[in-house]
Amino acid sequence: MRKRIKLRVNGHEHILSVPAHRTLLEVLREDLHLTGAKEGCGLGECGTCTVLVDGKATYACLTLALDASGREIKTIEGLEKEGRLHPLQESFLERWAFQCGFCTPGMVLSAKALLDENPSPSEDEVRRAIEGNFCRCTGFKKPVEAILAVARKKE
Predict the structure, then answer these.
(1) Domain boundary at 53, 78, 103, which?
(2) Which of 16, 64, 98, 141 could cross-link with 104 by S-S, CB 3.0 to 4.6 Å?
């Protein structure tokens, strides 16, 4: 059975007809062609599918598209403004806080949710905010440094 939903993604409204069991991740990747959020574990344990739903870091692989209807969704593709990267994206680049990039979108969005709520987090708070985002390439030292650098610029 298909259901009609309205998603506001990165500031743009989309009206879609989707099967009731379809996840937000599937809709973002397959219907809207926003491929920044990745399918990693499919169990909400790796964080590669992290997006922001009403400003909160959310695992898109565990969220039904129906449950996201009418809510504000932000993906990594929606962070840049007028062709300029978000300060978190710039900081990750400047500090080589990624290697393969598979986990990076989810980690950046988890960090954005944290900084939006707490502009001056401690290192422990940063680590807690991104602990649901697994990285097998770089670990967490460089990403934590990149996030803290952005927080310090805001002070």
Answers:
(1) 78
(2) 98
H runs (alpha helix) in the chain: 24-26, 65-68, 87-94, 104-117, 123-130, 141-154
pLDDT beyond 70 at 155: no
* Domain CATH code at residue 142: 1.10.150.120
pTM of the model: 0.93
Please state, in angstroms and as integers, the Cα–Cα distance from residue 137 to each residue in 18, 65, 131, 134, following that order. Answer: 35, 31, 15, 9
Residue type for 80, please? E
Residues 58, 95, single domain; the answer is no
**Cα–Cα distance for residue pair 153/131, rounded to 1 Å:** 23
Evaluate if residue 154 carries a pLDDT over 80: no
- Domain of residue 127 covers 87-154
The H or E element containing residue 18 is: strand 12-19
Number of domains the chain contains: 2
| Residue from 120, 99, 108, 58 nearest 79 by CA | 108
Report strand pairing: 56-59 vs 72-74.
Answer: unpaired
- Under the banding of pLDDT at 50, 70 and 90, the label for residue 137 is confident
